[in-house]
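Aim 2, interim progress: modelling of the 2-acetamido-2-deoxy-beta-D-glucopyranose-bound target.
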Amino acid sequence: MAMASILTAAILAAAASITVGVAFNVPAISFDDGYTPLFGERNIVRSPDGGSVKIILDKASGSGFISTDLYYHGLFSASIKLPSDYTAGVVVAFYMSNGDIFEKNHDELDFEFLGNIWGKEWRVQTNVYGNGSTNRGREERYRLPFDPTAESHRYSILWTNTTIIFYIDEIPIREVERSDAMGGDYPSKPMSIYATIWDGSNWATSGGKHKIDYKYAPFVSDFSDLILKGCRLDPIQQLPAMEQCREEEGRTAAADYSVMTPEKRKEMQRFRREYMIYSICYDELRYPVAFPDCKVVEEEKERFKKSGHVMAHPVPAGRRQRQRRRGRAQRKGSYSSRVANA
Ligand SMILES: *[C@@H]1O[C@H](CO)[C@@H](O)[C@H](O)[C@H]1NC(C)=O
Ligand SMILES: *[C@@H]1O[C@H](CO)[C@@H](O)[C@H](O)[C@H]1NC(C)=O
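Predicted structure of the complex, ligand included:
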């Protein structure tokens, strides 16, 4: 009897810990309900209840996981705790992409976390690519209003047919509205969701000046409160299969998290004023003419003019692309093996 009630309590506790992070009123799923290991499987450690997972980078390998299915629009979210102490060169990424399927014209939405040397904070970068716009990177970088290594914080990507919103802890930090002028640069094809940790020594910290020091390994990042809420498509299915997404599409468009209210926009502007340290919208050296999706705020523009462009250490495009290509090759192998095993 006592044993049974202890067991019951344990089971309830396990169930509760999976759904405890109800962000935007969307219940979280367990790792195995939405994701599967992608590479470095020995460096992926699931919690006993299956609700969270650690991905680890050590001298032998990084690691990463991928959603079992593709998604066409929706809310994609995780609570993430980043590795602490000396993390120069370490990159943690939470992103969506279809680069495995569309090599020349892929779409991608990124949260990338860039480690740092002692006493310096992690940086967060967001990016948007559509239809293979890899030579038109749309980076933005931010500091964070909290210590991302002390506890988990939620990072979310909302992607609908008309808008993309990046959230940190339910505060919108970036909004990209679709326009005709943006054309194919707006992501438009189903994507997988990825989380990875890897050695980005040659660009991640101060443009590659500070490399990884494996003396401080293993580097461990914790993912929990996993949300994959969108129209789910089997990767084996013929694409496009978007017709079947209309209903889910309507639900996504109507959800709170898809609607940018004046209050939310104000919060977003406050965040950007305080924490944004780089935006392509103000980098006139890289892009003399701002992208149509840039909403230039005069105050921000002035600030970036004064601080110049050095402050942000934007990644030299060539270097970044080499790095990405290597990353993609790894993902590609894994995608093929997934298809082969299906
Ligand atoms: C999405 O937007 C595009 C371009 O604005 C439009 O042609 C298409 O019909 C829309 N699709 C859905 C499912 O609403
Ligand atoms: C996507 O890119 C290809 C060339 O790579 C181009 O032919 C096509 O028109 C583009 N699609 C859109 C929607 O811009």
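The radius of gyration is 20 Å. Residues 161, 249 surround 2-acetamido-2-deoxy-beta-D-glucopyranose (ligand 1) (CB under 6 Å).
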